[in-house]
Amino acid sequence: MNKEFIEAIDQLEKEKGISKDTLFEAIESALISAYKKNYGANGNVAVEIDREEGDINVYMRMDVVDEVEDASTQISVEEAKEIDPAYDTGDVVEYQVKPEDFGRIAAQTAKQVVVQRIREAERGMIFDDYIEKTGEVVTGTVQRKSNETIFVNMGKTEGILPVKEQVPGEHFNVNDRIKVYIMDVRNSTKGPQVFLSRSHPGLVKRLFELEVPEIEDGIVEIKSIAREAGSRTKMAVYTEDENVDPVGACVGSRGSRVQSIVDELFNEKIDIINWSEDPHELISNVLSPAKVESVSLDEVNQIATVIVPDYQLSLAIGKSGQNVRLAAKLCGWKIDIKSHTQMEEAEADEEYEDDIEEGYDEDEPMTDEEAEEVVNELDSEEAEAESDEEEEDEEAEDADEVLEESTEDEAEEETADEVEEAEETEEETADEDEESETTDEEEKGEEE
After folding, report:
1. How far is CA 234 from CA 60, 176, 181, 212, 229, in A?
2. Contact present, 135 and 201 (Cβ < 8 Å)
3. pLDDT by residue (tens digit) across 243-265?
4. Whole-angstrom Cα distance, residue 53 to residue 51?
5. Are 282 and 224 in contact (CB under 8 A)?
6. How high is the pLDDT of residue 88?
7. pTM surpassing 0.70?
8. Least confident of 81-85, 238-242, 354-358
9. Given its phi and psi angles, is residue 8 left (phi above 0), alpha (psi -120 to 50 degrees) or beta?
10. What mean pLDDT do residues 378-393 have?
């Protein structure tokens, strides 16, 4: 019987993964509860199980007192000395008892205690195991769906993938294999609850660590990552090794490494950029693929003003502002993007405002009359400028008229000359005709 008992303990250890000591302690507690249930004992009962042979011994512990007040927990000095003359007041007498067969209720109590202790031990092991895996990626199988919540079988326990941690556009069926990010582990009355995520930026980070050996070895470091799940991710990488290209290491040969991650994320776009400690360079990099002309920083308010070419403005902002939004998350700066034309107009407006404020003294603010004079002066200057422009326009018009008149006179003179030449030509032609006729008449007279 004892041999079968030890074999049963060994089998439980293999199946449940619970140590023998934990199982023996659970059975000892169960026997104590059963003894008290069966015999109504309120005293200190101890049970010891031989780990090798499986022998079970039950001991009763009682306090040695001069006057007994509770017979179930106390024993008089005289009775104690009968057991051993060395006992004295204040000692604890421990003697073995041999209980008779437990009744049905006591046996049921022992069974419940054992089962409960084993279940608690299992939960404790699962909690300890998965609390250490928080922030890691594990592979599981979709076990069931409840409304839109997905429950994933991860072997020892069942993980919960809430709706808000799922990615729009991703659909999984029962028995589909799925990679998930362990976001949180909590202990509850129902056991450990493992909360999973498919939208957390950490999922992308861990996938790259699994796919890129340089990241796993610490040669390449992921400095920052920003993600809008299902659409686009931006990731900044850095290395101190001059012989290693951090972006190339993450992309892989012909994009093989990053492509496997893109496939896992159902074609989510991934931008990989170089990290820089220089905010100007970093902000220029994070706005990729847009080209940046200049970056000015307001370090007090952590605001960066970025100037881009006019044709690059929409690309820098991105669809619905996605590119600049992810860039701001990635670098930690608020980014204000302006086109080249917008910046020139803003500078022109600032110059105008500076002109208005010219002569303003902070200690002695201008009166309304002084402000009106400044505005009038500016208006007069503008009026003079407009007048000069009008004069220039009038001079230009006059010059055009003179030019037109001179052109017309020349044209008329050329026309008159052409008419005279034509008349002279006609006269010469007429004379030639007359001479020709006279010659013909003379020739006819001679012939006659």
Report:
1. 69, 28, 18, 17, 11
2. no
3. 999 999 999 988 999 999 999 99
4. 6
5. no
6. 83
7. no
8. 354-358
9. alpha
10. 65
Which amino acid type is present at position 446? E
Q: Catalogue all structural domains in the chain, each as residue range(s) with its CATH number.
A: 2-128 (3.30.1480.10), 135-197 (2.40.50.140), 200-275 (3.30.300.20), 279-353 (3.30.300.20)
Report the distance separating Cα 287 and Cα 313, nearest Å: 11
Across residues 275-284, what is the average pLDDT? 93
Per-range mean pLDDT, top range of 25-34, 59-68, 195-204, 381-390: 195-204
CA pair distance 128, 120, nearest whole angstrom: 12
Is residue 447 very low, low, confident or very high in pLDDT (cuts 50, 70, 90)? very low
- Evaluate if residue 359 carries a pLDDT over 80: no
